[in-house]
Backbone:
């Protein structure tokens, strides 16, 4: 039975440069003899003394087995030889024959390329036996990564140590204490391999080593594991204030290692205007009891460090009363009135003189 093949022609149009000596013209075809389905292959046609070839060069191939992906070939000239490289894609199982013909006798040539998986049936003479050969392309064992990057939940890219290389399989990295998770972006060299990542969804434990593994399994089943040891910096325990001021109490002053204060304010003050700064920028501050203030009220300022350590600053409210104010006012008026002072002095001297007079009598 004859098998009819559809042929597509590629024609190199060559301008006739004059009839020179064509005896040196030679055409060769190079490239792989096999291509998988839906994979590409480069075929190179090399012509010696190309400018002296009379007429045209024609390339034909079976379009039901191969598809030409090159609208324009890659051309190269070396040592007087001119080469044209075309890219073909295998589209159906079979044996494709590529032929090159020219107007110059003796320069024609051809090349066979096996596409996909082929079952060949060979009949030997006499026709008594039949052998069947199945050719299968070997599966890839490429289980390497082509790139690897880490990013924290805060959007910061993480530096790997050492820098990534496909042939290095263990890395270390350090992230800030505020980073809770990292995301992994891993790319494979071979798209036919499989990728599995473990540990990237877990929250990082502060002050400890957190392991992330990336396993690449090649097409033939061969595994390879990349390991990243991520250290999250320890959480801080500082739960103190570096600054605290109270607008309603000009005499208030924050002291180191002192957490309880008596704060004197006017009798009409209902709330305190507080301005505070934690010693650690990652600490949080909460204020309780700072409303409808009365004499004896307590305002509590709670500072919570990154690691959960808490420290409470207590402000005991002392409100100014009318009695205290009058007493202070009277005292001030007495101290500042010179007539009263002179009168009291005269009385005192009179009493002393009277006592002395009585004693002498």
Residues:
């Amino acid at each position: 039975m004859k098998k009819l093949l559809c042929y597509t022609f590629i024609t190199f149009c060559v301008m006739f440069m004059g009839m020179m000596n064509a005896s040196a013209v030679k055409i060769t075809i190079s490239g792989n003899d096999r291509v998988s389905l839906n994979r590409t292959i480069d075929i190179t046609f090399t012509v010696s003394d190309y400018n002296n070839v009379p007429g045209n060069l024609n390339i034909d191939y079976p379009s039901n087995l191969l598809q030409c992906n090159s609208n324009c070939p890659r051309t190269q000239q070396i040592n007087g030889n001119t080469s044209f490289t075309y890219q073909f894609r295998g589209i159906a199982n079979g044996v494709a024959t590529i032929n090159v013909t020219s107007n110059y006798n003796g320069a024609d040539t051809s090349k066979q390329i096996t596409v996909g998986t082929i079952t060949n049936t060979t009949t030997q003479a006499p026709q008594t036996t039949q052998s069947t050969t199945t050719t299968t392309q070997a599966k890839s064992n490429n289980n390497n990564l082509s790139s690897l990057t880490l990013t924290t939940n805060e959007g910061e890219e993480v530096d790997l140590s050492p820098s990534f290389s496909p042939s290095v399989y263990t890395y270390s990295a350090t992230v800030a204490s505020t980073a809770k998770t990292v995301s992994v972006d891993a790319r494979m060299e071979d798209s036919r391999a499989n990728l599995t990542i473990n540990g990237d969804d877990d929250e990082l434990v502060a002050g400890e080593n957190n392991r992330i593994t990336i396993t690449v399994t090649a097409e033939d089943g061969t595994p390879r594991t990349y390991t990243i040891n991520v250290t999250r910096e320890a959480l801080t325990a500082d739960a103190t204030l570096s600054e605290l001021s109270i607008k309603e109490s000009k005499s208030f002053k924050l002291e180191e290692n002192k957490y309880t204060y008596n704060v004197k304010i006017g009798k009409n003050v209902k709330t305190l205007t507080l301005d505070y700064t934690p010693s650690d920028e990652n600490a949080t501050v909460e204020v309780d009891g700072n409303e409808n203030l009365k004499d004896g009220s307590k305002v509590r300022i709670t500072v919570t460090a990154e690691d959960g350590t808490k420290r409470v600053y207590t402000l005991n409210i002392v409100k100014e009363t009318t009695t205290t104010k009058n007493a202070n006012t009277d005292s001030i008026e007495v101290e500042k009135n010179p007539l009263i002072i002179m009168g009291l002095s005269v009385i005192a001297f009179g009493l002393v003189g009277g006592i002395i007079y009585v004693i002498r009598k």
About this structure: The domain at 7-120 is CATH 2.60.40.10 (Immunoglobulin-like). The mean pLDDT is 81. The helical segments are 322-336, 338-360.
